[in-house]
Amino acid sequence: MNKLLTLCFFLLLTWPSMGQTEDEIISVVDSTLSLISGTPEDTYDWDAFRSLFTDDAELATIHLPPNAESPQLFRLTIGDFIERMGRVYESRTFIEKSISHEVHMVKNIAQVWQTYVTYGENGEELSRGVNAYHLMKIDGNWKISSLMWEDL
Questions:
Q1: pLDDT of 16 strictly over 60
Q2: Which of 76, 31, 36 is nearest to 57 (CA)?
Q3: Model-level pTM?
Q4: Half-sphere exposure (CA, 13 Å, Cβ side) for 69?
Q5: Neighbours of 146 (CB within 10 A)
Q6: Distances from the Cα of 135 to the Cα of 11, 54, 128, 143, angstroms
C-alpha cells in the first residue's frame, strides 16, 4: 500500500510532463541545436541563443586532451561560450540534430538527456554525443540553467 501511495504521489507531481509541458521543454533544448547550426553564409542569432538560458547558466564539455590520462571538464558561462564558440560556428558548416530525448520533470525542474549527431560540409557526419540539460521554469518559461555535453 505504501508503494502505491508513493507511485500516486509521483504521478501527481509529474503529470504535466505528459503532454504540452514536455513539448515546451523539448522545444527549448532543440532550439539550442538549431541556433548553433548553419553555414558561414548564415546569420547567427546569439541573442536568441542567450535567451534560452538563465543569466548564470553554465555550459560544460567533457573532453580528453592530447596526452591526457583522464577526461577533463571545460566550463563556460553563456557569454564566454558565445564569445569563444560563436566564431567557430560562424566560420564553418556545422549542423547539429537531435536523435532522441529523455525528459524528467517535477514541478519547476526538468532534466533532459538528448542524443545528437553533427554534420559538416557536404553532409558528412562529424560526431555523435549526449547533451545533458537542467532547466527551470521561470515566469512561465523554461530556461536552461546548465548544459553538459560529450561526444561519444
A1: no
A2: 76
A3: 0.85
A4: 0
A5: 18
A6: 20, 9, 22, 5
Q: pLDDT confidence of 3, banded at 50, 70, 90? A: low
Beta carbons of 105 and 17 less than 8 angstroms apart: yes
80: number of Cβ within 10 Å: 12
Residues in the chain: 152
Which residues on adjacent β-strands are paired with residue 147? 59, 133
- The pLDDT confidence band at residue 6, using thresholds 50, 70 and 90, is low
DSSP H helices, the chain, are 2-14, 20-36, 46-51, 78-91
Grid cell listed for 147: 548544459
Higher pLDDT, 139 or 17: 139
Which of 94, 99, 108 is closest to 130 using CA atoms?
A: 99
